[in-house]
Specification:
single chain; mainly alpha; Serine Threonine Protein Phosphatase 5, Tetratricopeptide repeat; two-stranded antiparallel sheet; translocation
Length: 262
């Protein structure tokens, strides 16, 4: 409910603002330790990224609920936004977007960690689990760029608005595609952010969609074998439908004005 989300937001905002907050039946405050505020900013930003990695990856509809809180906190506490981006880029280099290269002297295990894989006792996580986590973080990032905390200062610019989404998409299309990863993340990004981008950029966005269909999808196909065609087929179908209808569907879970009255 909107009222519940506002409670959560107010509690986080009050805590970051130095006010005492009740948690686990005791009052705590960031002023209790010289590094208290910086520690809380760091842990909160880390937690926000984990929400994308765990919650949004399993329940896509939750992306906007979490994103609107992050966006509002980012606006009032810019340092949290900076640390959030640092955590996000480290956990998911594709959010930059950036594909780390294998450098001489780097072990394969270390390189897999750089690519975002979880490696425990030299065992690398399954590819489908990896892709699920990465897409959860990209979906959260795509949602953050387009939502504002409704009770914030409307005169202020969005702390990390749609221009960053436009830049991400352009940079992504300038990279050589990676097997699986590129098709999955491009599809999920367009599903979440496409509607907002077309409202903002109009004809320029449709030119990008046409480029994806005519030039970029064939490049993904060139590095994809028949076993890995699932997500690429979904991306092709999604882009084709959008171009035929000349409209981008509203993303699932988008917050309506009526939500805030609940």
């Amino acid at each position: 409910a909107g009222s519940k989300l506002r409670e959560v937001f107010d509690k986080i905002n009050n805590f970051l603002s130095g006010k005492p907050v009740l948690t686990e039946k005791q009052m705590v405050s960031v002023t209790q330790h010289p590094q208290g505020l910086e520690f809380v900013r760091y842990k909160l930003a880390e937690k926000f990224v984990r929400q994308g990695e765990e919650e949004v990856s399993s329940h896509r509809d939750s992306a906007f609920l979490i994103a609107v809180v992050i966006s509002g906190i980012w606006e009032l506490h810019p340092r949290v936004g900076d640390i959030f981006l640092a955590h996000l880029h480290k956990k998911c280099p594709y959010s930059v977007p950036f594909y780390p290269a294998l450098k001489e002297g780097t072990s394969m295990e270390e390189y897999q960690r750089m690519l975002g894989y979880e490696v425990v006792d030299s065992k690398v996580e399954q590819q489908d689990h990896f892709l699920k986590r990465m897409s959860g973080m990209i979906c959260l990032y795509a949602a953050i760029m387009q939502v504002r905390w409704p009770y914030g200062n409307k005169q202020e610019a969005h702390p990390h608005g749609l221009s960053y989404g436009w830049r991400w998409l352009a940079q992504m299309l300038n990279l050589e595609p990676l097997v699986d990863v590129t098709a999955v993340l491009l599809l999920h990004f367009l599903e979440v952010c496409g509607n907002a981008l077309v409202k903002q950029y109009g004809i320029q966005f449709w030119k990008i969609m046409f480029f994806i269909q005519k030039c970029y999808i064939p490049r993904i196909e060139a590095v994809t074998n028949t076993v890995q065609m699932g997500c690429l087929s979904r991306l092709k179908s999604f882009v084709q439908k959008c171009l035929e209808k000349k409209e981008m569907p509203l993303p699932k879970g988008v917050l309506t004005p009526s939500f805030w009255r609940t």
